[in-house]
Amino acid sequence: MASAPTQSSSVAGSLGSTQTTTMAPLPSYQMLNHMLPVKLDRTNYILWRSQVDNVIFANGFEDFIDGSTICPEKELSHNSSHYAWKALEKTFSSSSRARIMQLRLELQSTKKGSMTMIDYIMKVKAAVDSLAAIGEPISEQDQVMNLLGGLGADYNAVVTAINIRDDKISIEAVHSMLLAFEHRLEQ
Fold first, then answer.
1. One Pfam family of this protein, by short name (predicted)?
2. What pLDDT score does 179 carry?
3. Coil, strand or helix: which one is 67?
4. Which residues contact 50 (CB under 8 A, 6 or more apart)?
5. Of 2, 27, 57, 150, which is least packed with CB atoms within 10 Å of its CB?
6. What are the beta bridge partners of residue 9?
7. Cβ–Cβ under 8 Å, residues 106 and 124
8. What is the mean pLDDT of each run of 10 residues along the chain (187 residues)?
9. How far apart (Å, rounded) are the C-alpha atoms in residues 24 and 177?
10. Which residues contact 47 (CB under 8 A, 6 or more apart)?
11. In angstroms, rounded to a whole number, what is the distance separating the alpha carbons of residues 67 and 84?
């Protein structure tokens, strides 16, 4: 298996000795492919960018991306990495904002309908998790509100019981109460 190239530098020390410092290997395409499990598409720019930002920072490439260091021509074509990064951001950031709005609307408009309670909870949780993954976390109380808001009249008793509580209730406790109530309705 081929190894990634390494960077090295030599520094003349005292008494004519030379010290050679070898830095960590530069990431190869295969390494980057492994380090970036989420592949860029039309719906996941923010998630993809967050993982790429981590790789850039970990490898010390941030100066190339922010434009403060320009790559020598022999290593990069006439377009700079800064320009390429800005082009990606321009292309995908508007669709990412649209994705956030789409997920928020999905979260607010999801109704239990004929789904089982566990399927309904999982559908709401999927939207919440997707929003969190792209940097838009939903508070636990908003999760409770959205979950209760999508229930039909059959669940009015448990919704009222949850709403009249003086203390905050965890989303896990709400899940348990709703599953228990559904079980009771089915008997």
1. Retrotran_gag_2
2. 95
3. coil
4. 135
5. 2
6. 21
7. no
8. 44 45 55 77 81 83 80 57 78 74 94 95 93 89 96 95 91 95 92
9. 53
10. 38, 133, 134
11. 11
Cα–Cα distance measured from residue 68 to residue 89, given in angstroms and rounded to the nearest whole number: 18
**19 pairs with which residues across the strands?**
11
Q: Please give the biggest Cα pair distance in the chain.
A: 89
**125 with 118: CB under 8 angstroms?**
no
pLDDT of residue 105: 95
Q: What is the total residue count of the chain?
A: 187
104 burial (CB, 10 Å; 0-12 / 13-18 / 19+) is: middle
Residue carrying structure tokens 């109704």:
111
CA atoms within 13 A on the CB side of 166: 0
Distances (CA, A) of 19 to 8, 15, 135: 10, 12, 45
pLDDT of residue 1: 43
Please give the pLDDT value at position 138: 95
Among candidate residues 97, 98, 126, the one with its CA nearest the CA of residue 110 = 126
Q: Which residues, in sequence order, are CB contacts of 158 under 8 Å at separation 6+? A: 177, 178, 181
What local confidence, expressed as pLDDT, does residue 14 receive?
44
Angle made by CA atoms 38, 44, 48, in degrees to the nearest 5 = 45
